[in-house]
Amino acid sequence: MSIDVQLLPLRGKAPKANVDIYYTVDGTEPTAESTRYAGTFPVTLGTMVKALVVLDGLPVLNLDERFAAGEGFVWKSSVKASEIPAGEQAERAVFTGAVREGKAHGRIFRGEGYIRFTGEADASVQ
Length: 126
Known about the structure:
Blueprint: E1 19-24, E2 35-36, E3 48-55, E4 58-66, E5 73-77, E6 88-89, E7 95-96, E8 98-101, E9 114-117, E10 124-125
Antiparallel strand pairs: 1-2, 1-3, 3-4, 4-5, 6-9, 7-10, 8-9
């Protein structure tokens, strides 16, 4: 099994950040004390791999993947969507779990609004 995490900026360059991944293969929740991911590792059918992605010391994503017929993986955010600062213009966006704001927390922008997520990680913008 291999795990790959990359920062994909929506605008401009990706910020420099320290990304660490910790994982377990026994179904327990990983922590910063778990095995640090350093490269591929073997798994057998029935194995439950759980991974924790830590960005600059803060947990940001969890991965659950069970290796069995007809099963796949799930990424879950460790950060509440309401903790993510506004930043995406959204004049005509369709969204759930968010509100449109007229200010972008001190940023200068053109347009009429930005999205600020208000709930947990199950929010979306189209």
